[in-house]
Write a structure and sequence with these properties.
heterodimer, A: alpha+beta, five-stranded antiparallel sheet, 3 helices, B: alpha/beta, Transcription Regulator spoIIAA, 5 strands, about 40% helix
Amino acid sequence: MTAETTELSLPSRIDTVAKAAAAVAEFLSRSGISDDAAFGIDMAVREAVTNAVIHGNRQDENKTVDVTLKSSPDAVEISVHDQGPGFNPEDVPDPTAAENILKASGRGIFFMRTFMDEVDWLIRPEGGTTVRMVKRR
Amino acid sequence: MAELNINERQAGDVTVLDMSGKITIGEGSVALRTAVRRLLEEGKKRILLNLAQVSYIDSSGIGELVSSYTAIGKDGGQLKLLNLTQKLQDLLTITKLLTVFDVYENEADALNSFK
């Protein structure tokens, strides 16, 4: 297993979510990761890119969503960067709490954390937010 | 080809929506929302979603299932789910929604439950 890195720069549109997912699927097919892990990574990437397009860049097509895919013998690491002001992930309510169960939204970050081994956010000094997600082999 | 295809059929006073494809942000979620709203406008308030051929759903799609469930409930109707794939069942379990929805593996049982 050799290390591989792929970078994508995509417009802030809803259809970017499916394009990013297709690129990730193609990347994962070369990475030798299990089908179960690939399903979880696909879910997490779709949610991360959705958040970047909608909440980060607010569908401003002048702003890009940049996705970096890294595969190593130990793990797959995916970073999704937007040009939004960022947020505090601790402020996002738990969607499984009784008072939130019937809410129509708010499950994206929960899925990212459920399906990946590490998820963290970096608000970059030069602007924008990066979510970094790791799935260990 | 559309992301989500929805075929409508009537079984007594229950409207069954046979869905195939993906319920994801954008087209798929909007198609489900549009179909449910139209049924409510037509006074069809007993709705069974057959999800056997739904290959994929994201958080937006799950949100749309929840929205449909609450909208139909507020209108005095009932939304039930039929033939969940294992993946969808897993997602509803971890989000604790499996206990919210009335879920069936057999269409006859699902239809009888509306009576």
